[in-house]
UniProtKB/TrEMBL annotation:
GO terms for cellular component: cell outer membrane
Signal peptide: 1-27
Membrane topology recorded in Swiss-Prot or TrEMBL: Multi-pass membrane protein
Gene3D superfamilies (UniProt xref): TonB-dependent receptor, beta-barrel domain, TonB-dependent receptor, plug domain
Compartments where located: Cell outer membrane
Protein name: TonB-dependent receptor
Segments of this protein annotated with the region Disordered: 35-68
Family as reported in the entry's similarity comment: Belongs to the TonB-dependent receptor family.
Principal location class: membrane
Presence of the UniProt keyword Transmembrane in the record: yes
Length: 952
C-alpha cells in the first residue's frame, strides 16, 4: 500500500527537477545520445564521432553532425555506461532519413518497416474499437501473446525514460504519443535487457530519441490517398538555440478516414468449415426449424425448402477506423554551469477513433403467441411452436474510443570530476482511455420480439420506438493510468588497465504505477456511474435493472538496484595480432514488486576484434516480464460468448475429435484467469560485423539469437481458435453438462448474446472453450538477423543499398508443464523470412529510392477451411498454404538549394504498394483479425502521398 508522504516526496523530486529547467542561469548545453549501429538499414553509417547533438533543419539530413567533442557523453541504448556500445549487442538504428523515407504519419506506422518486429509488412492503425488492446504495441521477435496480455515483452522508452501505459486491457505505452517529425533516431536492441532496465525488456528495448536542439521555424505536411481512403498530417516546430541551451515546441495534427471490408476485395468471409455457409444473419434473414434453415421471404410451407440466405458479414467490418489526433511536444536543454546541465521533455496527445461498426445483427428465438401471431403464423413450417430467426436490420451500431495522455521527463546531469557523472532521471505521466461500443442486449431483444414490438422476419415492420430503445445500448469501458518514476545512475572509470579504463555504473530506481479500470457490463449510455432501474415499453419490461459499473484502483510499487561493469582486456593501447579489441561486460539488476515479489536478472556480453574490420560478439542473460495490472483477474470483465454453428470454432478435420453436428453451438469465455505469474526468459546471441577495407562503405552484420520464454502469458490459439483443440487441449471441455454451462453463465459479467440456444435437447453444445488469459507453458524460438548496407559517393552524387532480414530457424511451444513441444513453423502465422531491401541514388538535390518488403509464405498443417460443395453449389478444397506477400514502395525527395523562398524547401513523394498487391488469402477463423487475409500481413492497397517541408 502506498504511503502518502512517499508519494509527496517523489513528486517533490519531479517538481524540483522541472523547476531547475526554468532557471535563467544559462551555460553550455550537454547531451548524451546513442550512435547508429553499422547494421542499421538506410543511407549511411554513423560513428560515435559523427553522432549529432543538435538538430538544424537547414542542414541536409545525411550531413548533420558536429558533436565530436561530445562523443564521450554518448549513452547507447542497452548500456548504462557512457561512450561505448553495449558489448556483445546488436544495435539496430533507424535515422531521421530512414523515418522520412517510410512516409509514416504516426510512429506506429514507422514500425511497419522493421523486419525484427511482428508488425512488419502490416497496417499499424488503432487495432480495435472496444475493450481489446487499443494501441499498437511493438513486438520484437514476434513473441506470443503480445496483443493479448496487458504488458509487453518489448520495452518502449523515450530518451531513456519509461512512459505511462495506455488502454483499457493493457498497460503498455503507446509509441504514437511521439510524433515522427520530432524523432531524431530510433535505437533497437533486440536482446534481453532486464539486467539494465527491469521488467518488459524480454525480447529487447526500443528507445525513441527525440531532437535535442532546434533553431527557427519548420512547417511540414503530408497528404496521402488510396481507393476510398485518405490520410493527412501537419507539423509545426519552432525553437531557439542560444548556444548553451535550446528551447523548442512542436505541434502535430494527423487524421485518416475509415475503411471497411466492402472497400477491399481481399477482405472476405469464407464458408464455415462445418456448415459450408457464410453468415446467415442477413437481410433478408433466415428461419431455422428442426436443423433446417429456410431463407426469407417464403410462403408456408416452403416448397421446395427455401435455400438459406447468406451474406458476407466482413463487408461491414472496420478495416481502419476514422481517426483524429492532436499531439504536442516541447523540449528544453540547458547547461547551468560547467558541472550541471538539465534536459526537460513534455508531451501531450489526444486521439479520437470512430467506427460506424456493424449493422444490428442477431439471432432470436420466437415463440408462438397472440403477440407474435402476426409474423410467426405466416412462417410456421409445420406444428412447431418456436423458431430461430437470424436477421440483420437498421443503421449501424457506432463505436468511439478516446485516448488522452500527457507527461514530462526531466533529467539532471552532474559532472563529479575524474570522469564520474551522476544522472537523475524523472518521469511523471498519465493516460485516460474511454470506449463506447454500440451493442444489442439479446435478452431485451427476445422480450421485444415476443411482445410483438420487433418483427425479425421483416424488421422494417417493427415498432420504431422499440427499435430505438434497443439501439440505445452500449458496451462502456474506461481506464486511467499513472506512472511516477525516479532513477539515478552513477558511472565513471573505476581503474585503468593496459586495454583501457574499466567502466562502472551503479544505480537505483523507484517507480509507482496505478491502473483504474471501469468496465464490466453493457449499459444504457450515460448510466455507467448511476445504474438504471428496469425499463419498460408499452407496459412490457424490456431491460433488467443494471448496476453502476464499479471502478477498481490497482497499484504497485517497484524498487530496484542495478549495476554494470565493462572491462577492456585489449584495446588501442595494447592491441596485438588477433586481439585488436577484447571487451567483456557484466550487468545485474534486482527488482522487488509489491505484488509479485523479487527477481534478479544478470547479463554478460563480449566483443572481440581479431582485426579492425572484423568483430565477433556474444551475449547471455535472463529477463522477466511482470504480469500487468491489467492482467489482474479483477481488472477485466469475464465475457461469455455463445457461438452458433456458422460462427463457431470446431476442431480441424482429422484431429481425433467427434464430428460436429449441424446446429451445434460452442460456448467460449474470455477474461483474465486468477493468479497469473510473471513471464521469464533466457536469451543469448552470437554475431559478427564486417567492414572490409577493400570495399569502403560496405557493412555486413549477422546475429544468431535464441530465446526461451517460460510461463508465457496469452490466450490459447487466439489467431486461429480451431487450433485450440490441437495445441491447448486443457482449455477444451467436450459435451459440457447443462449444470456446467449454467455455472459459466452465472459467473459471466458480460453476456453479449444472451442464452441463444436455451437448454438441451433444444440446445446442443459441442464444446466449452476457456479462452481466458493465463500462463501457457514455454515458448522457444531462434533465428538470424542479417543486415547489409553499402553507401558510395560518386561523381554525380551517391548510391546506397541495404538489406535487413529476419529469418526464424526454430519456433516451438509447450502449452503447459509436462506437455510436449509442438513445432509451430509448419503452421505459424508469421512466415519464416521477413526482409526489407532498399536501393537508392542521389543526384544533386534529388534522392530516389525503391524498397521491397517481403514476408514469406507458410504451410498450414492441418489444412483450414471448408472442403466440399456448399449448399449454394460452390466447390472448395481446404487451404494448405498461405502465399508470400511482396510489397514494393517508391520514395522521392527533392531538396531545393536556392535562395529566399526556395531555401530549405523540400518536397517528397511516397508511392506505397506500387503494384497494388493484395495480401495472401487465409480461410481460418480469427478472433480480432480480418476476414480472408493472413494475420501477419495487411495493406491499404496502393497509397500515394505528397509531402512538403519548409524551414524559416
Amino acid at each position: 500500500m502506498r504511503v502518502s508522504s512517499n508519494r509527496a516526496f517523489r513528486r517533490g523530486i519531479l517538481a524540483g527537477a522541472a523547476s531547475i529547467a526554468m532557471l535563467p542561469t544559462f551555460a553550455a548545453a550537454q547531451v548524451a545520445e546513442p550512435v547508429r549501429d553499422p547494421n542499421a538499414p538506410g543511407t549511411g553509417v554513423q560513428s560515435p564521432e559523427e553522432a549529432e547533438d543538435s538538430f538544424d533543419a537547414s542542414q541536409p539530413i545525411a550531413g548533420r553532425g558536429g558533436a565530436a567533442e561530445q562523443a564521450g557523453e554518448i549513452i547507447v541504448t542497452g548500456t548504462l555506461v557512457r561512450g561505448i556500445a553495449p558489448p556483445g549487442a546488436n544495435v539496430i538504428g533507424v535515422t531521421s532519413a530512414d523515418i522520412e523515407a517510410t512516409g509514416a504519419t504516426t510512429t506506429a506506422q514507422l514500425l511497419q518497416s522493421i523486419p525484427q518486429l511482428g508488425s512488419f509488412n502490416q497496417l499499424q492503425f488503432p487495432r480495435s474499437i472496444g475493450t481489446d488492446v487499443t494501441v499498437n504495441r511493438p513486438n520484437l521477435r514476434s513473441l506470443p501473446g503480445f496483443n493479448q496480455f496487458g504488458g509487453s515483452t518489448t520495452l518502449v522508452l523515450m530518451d531513456g525514460h519509461r512512459l505511462v501505459g495506455v488502454g483499457i486491457t493493457s498497460t503498455a505505452p503507446d509509441p504514437d504519443v511521439i510524433p515522427p517529425g520530432i524523432l531524431d533516431r530510433l535505437e533497437i536492441v533486440p536482446d534481453g535487457g532486464s539486467a539494465i532496465y527491469g521488467s518488459d525488456a524480454v525480447a529487447g528495448v526500443m528507445n525513441f530519441i527525440t531532437r535535442k536542439r532546434f533553431d527557427g521555424v519548420q512547417i511540414s505536411g503530408n497528404y496521402g490517398f488510396a481507393d476510398d481512403y485518405h490520410q493527412a498530417d501537419v507539423n509545426v516546430t519552432a525553437g531557439r538555440d542560444w548556444g548553451s541551451g535550446s528551447l523548442f515546441a512542436s505541434y502535430n495534427y494527423s487524421e485518416h478516414g475509415d475503411l471497411f471490408g466492402r472497400d477491399r476485395d481481399f477482405i472476405q468471409s469464407f464458408p464455415n468449415p462445418t456448415t459450408g455457409l457464410l453468415s446467415i444473419q442477413c437481410s433478408p434473414g433466415n428461419v431455422t426449424v428442426g436443423g433446417i434453415t429456410y431463407g426469407l421471404p417464403f410462403t408456408t410451407p416452403p416448397t421446395p425448402a427455401a435455400v438459406a440466405n447468406e451474406c458476407d458479414a466482413s463487408d461491414t467490418s472496420v478495416l481502419i477506423p476514422d481517426e483524429r489526433r492532436h499531439s504536442g511536444y516541447a523540449g528544453l536543454t540547458q547547461r547551468l554551469s560547467d558541472a550541471i546541465s538539465i534536459d526537460l521533455r513534455a508531451f501531450y496527445t489526444n486521439r479520437r477513433t470512430f467506427a460506424a461498426g456493424t449493422p444490428f445483427r442477431s439471432q432470436v428465438t420466437v415463440n408462438q403467441s397472440a403477440a407474435t401471431s402476426s409474423f410467426f403464423d405466416p412462417h410456421q413450417i409445420g406444428s412447431e411452436t418456436s423458431q430461430t430467426v437470424n436477421f440483420a436490420f437498421g443503421e449501424s451500431l457506432p463505436s468511439e474510443t478516446t485516448l488522452e495522455t500527457w507527461g514530462f521527463t526531466p533529467t539532471v546531469t552532474a559532472e563529479l570530476g575524474e570522469n564520474w557523472q551522476l544522472r537523475v532521471l524523472g518521469s511523471y505521466s498519465e493516460s485516460d482511455t474511454q470506449t463506447r461500443q454500440g451493442a444489442i442486449d439479446n435478452t431485451a431483444l427476445g422480450r421485444a420480439v415476443n411482445a410483438g414490438f420487433v418483427n425479425p422476419y421483416d424488421p422494417s415492420a417493427s415498432d420504431p420506438g422499440a427499435v430505438e430503445l434497443l439501439r440505445n445500448y452500449q458496451l462502456f469501458a474506461s481506464a486511467r493510468q499513472r506512472l511516477e518514476d525516479v532513477r539515478a545512475v552513477l558511472d565513471g572509470t573505476l581503474l585503468d588497465l593496459p586495454g583501457g579504463g574499466v567502466k562502472l555504473a551503479v544505480g537505483a530506481e523507484y517507480y509507482s504505477e496505478s491502473f483504474r479500470p471501469q468496465t464490466g457490463n453493457n449499459i444504457i449510455p450515460g448510466t455507467e456511474n448511476t445504474g438504471t432501474e428496469p425499463i419498460f415499453y408499452n407496459g412490457v419490461q424490456i431491460y433488467n435493472p443494471i448496476s453502476r459499473l464499479p471502478t477498481l484502483n490497482l497499484t504497485r510499487d517497484v524498487k530496484a538496484v542495478f549495476g554494470e561493469i565493462v572491462v577492456p582486456i585489449f584495446g588501442a593501447d595494447n592491441a596485438s595480432s588477433f586481439f585488436q579489441e577484447l571487451t567483456i561486460s557484466a550487468a545485474g539488476r534486482y527488482d522487488y514488486y509489491s505484488d509479485v515479489g523479487g527477481t534478479f536478472n544478470p547479463k554478460f556480453g563480449l566483443t572481440w576484434k581479431p582485426v579492425d574490420w572484423f568483430k565477433l560478439r556474444g551475449s547471455w542473460g535472463k529477463s522477466f516480464n511482470a504480469p500487468s495490472l491489467a492482467d489482474n483477474a479483477a481488472a477485466t470483465a469475464t465475457t461469455l460468448f455463445i457461438l452458433p454453428s456458422f460462427a463457431a470454432p470446431f476442431p480441424p478435420a482429422g484431429a481425433g475429435y467427434p464430428t460436429p453436428q449441424p446446429g451445434q453451438f460452442v460456448f467460449a469465455v474470455r477474461g483474465n484467469s486468477p493468479g497469473i505469474r510473471p513471464q521469464t526468459a533466457t536469451t543469448w546471441t552470437l554475431g559478427m560485423d564486417v567492414q572490409p577495407p577493400v570495399l569502403p562503405g560496405f557493412n555486413l552484420g549477422l546475429t544468431y539469437y535464441n530465446i526461451e520464454l517460460r510461463n508465457g502469458i496469452g490466450l490459447p490459439a487466439n489467431g486461429n481458435p480451431n487450433q485450440a483443440y490441437l495445441s491447448f487441449p486443457s482449455v477444451i471441455t467436450l459435451n459440457p453438462s447443462q449444470e456446467f454451462l449454467q455455472d459459466q453463465i452465472d459467473q459471466a459479467q458480460i453476456f453479449p448474446l444472451g442464452n441463444l440456444c436455451g437448454t438441451p435437447p433444444t440446445c446442443s453444445v459441442y464444446s466449452f472453450i476457456d479462452f481466458r488469459k493465463n500462463n501457457f507453458g514455454t515458448f522457444r524460438t531462434s533465428g538470424l538477423d542479417i543486415n547489409v548496407a553499402y553507401h558510395r559517393d560518386t561523381g554525380f552524387g551517391s548510391i546506397n543499398f541495404g538489406v535487413n532480414t529476419n529469418y526464424i530457424l526454430t519456433q516451438k511451444q509447450s502449452p503447459g508443464p509436462g506437455l510436449p513441444f509442438q513445432d509451430q513453423l509448419p503452421a505459424n502465422f508469421n512466415g519464416r523470412l521477413k526482409m526489407k531491401a532498399t536501393a537508392g541514388v542521389e543526384v544533386g538535390g534529388l534522392l530516389s529510392q525503391v524498397t521491397l518488403n517481403h514476408t514469406s509464405g507458410y504451410d498450414l498443417n492441418p489444412p483450414l477451411g471448408f472442403a466440399g460443395t456448399t449448399p449454394s453449389g460452390q466447390t472448395f478444397t481446404a487451404q494448405d498454404r498461405v502465399d508470400a506477400f511482396n510489397v514494393v514502395n517508391l520514395f522521392f525527395r527533392y531538396d531545393f538549394r536556392g535562395q529566399d523562398l526556395l531555401k530549405d524547401l523540400q518536397l517528397t513523394l511516397n508511392i506505397d504498394n506500387v503494384f497494388n498487391q493484395d495480401p495472401p488469402e487465409y480461410r481460418g477463423v480469427q478472433l480480432g483479425g480480418f476476414a480472408g487475409i493472413a494475420p501477419a500481413v495487411n495493406t491499404l492497397g496502393r497509397l500515394v502521398q505528397f509531402g512538403i517541408s519548409k524551414k524559416f
